[in-house]
């Protein structure tokens, strides 16, 4: 069960099951005997009873003392487990619940230090030989079972008890998510849906496959006019992304980049496909034309588009598409941290813990399924965040840590936030950056960002938190979860196109979101009076 962590909670930390402990009973418990911290204590005395002391309700940090208050668990500078820690320093921890219902207890003070697995965040742990360690990861060595101590045994008052997450009572006032004082406050009446686990399982507790349907064929053009009146241009370098294919939502028939002179009619350069680290781009380079400081760039895409959605597997299901498993290299790539997807920071991890955005063990003993968990996180963002353009947020950042601070961002920021939470829990995600397959205007460019998470045996499942916030007003808010309308053109996967050789300078450039035309110039003069105009048009093609 998932425990609601309350101040004064009495509990034991079980390290190993079914092994005889030093008291001759079953199971090993962390405890203090004659001043010595041991991993194999028994469960028939106070030596293994610990008391939780909440230190900061905002971050969810706590310190853990023995029942007689003589000892305080902690991790020293050498990443060893100790029992004489400073409750305001190396004794501060956050509780990181695992999908199997066990908990990892992570140091707050040393969160930026690497544990023995090479990842950040050392944890309390027990090695296979029963040794006490303070540099465990989140694997088996760093996992404990929390065993509640009843009031009669511990002598604790009734308000020191704990509650479990209810899977069949939406109005349970003791629900550990609704009653979490560290969680984002929300007066939205739909917030109760977050803990309606019965409803979650009705929606996503079955077996599914991904159904793909053809929507339309399109010809899309991004026309860009670049004018730099005070610069004598000697060389132009223009770059656009090479749209990935095949994806389950698109099949690219052709993609090209063309540069013309100031009239827009005379071609002066064609783009070629080049590699920029993890991405492919189209790059066109042209020499400057005397007395001309204006060019037109045309980015043309022809594609077949497809909608995708999840369909339940039934006895009548006759066809299911084959699912290509991820390679280890792909899985690591789609689990990586970035400067925006910064889920490895203590700030972000504590926020996730405070809002219980981790898979949970339900009251009936079942573990929350991957789809139910991903839906709950999606729902949490939908109900607790506001859509605004990133430029209008303080600092203009789409970093996950900035989004949770301001509780508002745009489509790119929401895709990054959702990916950060899922990747933190080992679920691969990929961010799809592009434009709607609908014509825009100079004011409305139709740029957008969505994403997909990977489920073994199912494949890539779509998500669009931004549209859920702005365009889905009806419970259970599934219009933009596990569905893609087939009205979107992906220009590149994942933010951060690194290693762009622009043929102008020796530096390799990085562009985070390449939904428009990027350019560099070489010449004499200045950029005063520069004008860049974009127009996105999409034409449906009849087959």
TrEMBL record:
Q: Where is the sequence biased in composition, kind Polar residues?
A: 155-165
Return the InterPro entries for the record: Papain-like_cys_pep_sf, Transglutaminase-like
Comp. bias intervals (Low complexity): 166-182
Q: Which residues form the Transglutaminase-like domain?
A: 403-467
Start and end residues of each stretch annotated as Disordered: 153-189
- Extract the SUPFAM superfamilies matched here: Cysteine proteinases
- The name under which this protein is listed is Transglutaminase-like domain-containing protein
């Amino acid at each position: 069960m998932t425990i609601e962590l309350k101040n004064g909670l009495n509990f034991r930390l079980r390290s190993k099951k079914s092994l005889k402990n030093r008291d001759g009973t079953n199971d090993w418990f962390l405890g203090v005997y004659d001043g010595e911290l041991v991993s194999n204590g028994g469960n028939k005395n106070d030596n293994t009873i610990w008391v939780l002391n909440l230190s900061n309700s905002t971050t969810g940090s706590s310190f853990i003392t023995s029942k007689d208050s003589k000892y305080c668990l902690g991790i020293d500078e050498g990443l060893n487990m100790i029992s004489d820690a400073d409750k305001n320093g190396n004794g501060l921890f956050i509780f990181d619940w695992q999908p199997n219902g066990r908990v990892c207890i992570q140091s707050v003070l040393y969160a930026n230090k690497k544990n023995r697995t090479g990842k950040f965040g050392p944890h309390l742990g027990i090695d296979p030989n029963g040794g006490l360690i303070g540099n465990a990861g989140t694997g088996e060595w760093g996992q404990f079972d929390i065993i509640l101590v009843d009031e009669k045994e511990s002598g604790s008052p009734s308000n020191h008890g704990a509650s479990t997450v209810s899977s069949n009572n939406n109005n349970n006032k003791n629900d550990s998510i609704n009653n979490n004082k560290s969680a984002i406050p929300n007066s939205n009446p739909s917030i109760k849906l977050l803990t309606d686990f019965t409803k979650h399982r009705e929606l996503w507790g079955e077996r599914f496959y991904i159904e793909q349907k053809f929507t339309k064929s399109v010809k899309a053009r991004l026309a860009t006019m670049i004018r730099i009146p005070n610069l004598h241009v000697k060389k132009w370098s223009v770059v656009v992304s090479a749209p990935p294919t095949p994806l389950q939502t698109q099949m690219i028939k052709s993609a090209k980049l063309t540069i013309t002179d100031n009239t827009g009619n005379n071609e002066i350069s064609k783009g070629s496909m080049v590699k920029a680290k993890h991405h492919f781009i189209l790059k066109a380079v042209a020499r400057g034309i005397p007395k001309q400081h204006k060019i037109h760039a045309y980015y043309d895409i022809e594609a077949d588009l497809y909608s995708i959605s999840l369909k339940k597997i039934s006895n009548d299901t006759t066809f299911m598409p084959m699912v290509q498993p991820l390679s280890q290299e792909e899985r690591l790539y789609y689990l990586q941290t970035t400067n925006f997807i910064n889920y490895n920071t203590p700030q972000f991890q504590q926020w996730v813990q405070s809002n219980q955005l981790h898979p949970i063990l339900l009251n009936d003993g079942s573990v929350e399924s991957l789809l139910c968990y991903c839906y709950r996180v999606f729902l949490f963002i939908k109900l607790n965040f506001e859509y605004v353009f990133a430029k209008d947020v303080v600092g203009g950042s789409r970093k996950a840590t900035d989004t949770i601070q301001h509780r508002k961002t745009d489509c790119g920021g929401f895709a990054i936030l959702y990916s950060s939470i899922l990747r933190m829990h080992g679920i691969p995600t990929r961010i799809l950056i592009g434009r709607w397959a609908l014509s825009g205007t100079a004011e409305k460019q139709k740029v957008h960002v969505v994403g997909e998470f990977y489920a073994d045996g199912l494949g890539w499942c779509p998500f669009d938190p931004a549209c859920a916030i702005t365009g889905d007003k009806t419970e259970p808010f599934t219009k933009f979860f596990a569905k893609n309308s087939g009205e979107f053109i992906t220009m590149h996967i994942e933010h951060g196109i690194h290693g762009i050789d622009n043929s102008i300078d020796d530096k390799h450039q990085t562009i985070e979101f390449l939904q428009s035309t990027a350019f560099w110039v070489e010449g004499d003069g200045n950029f005063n009076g520069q004008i860049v105009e974009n127009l996105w048009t999409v034409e449906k093609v009849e087959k």
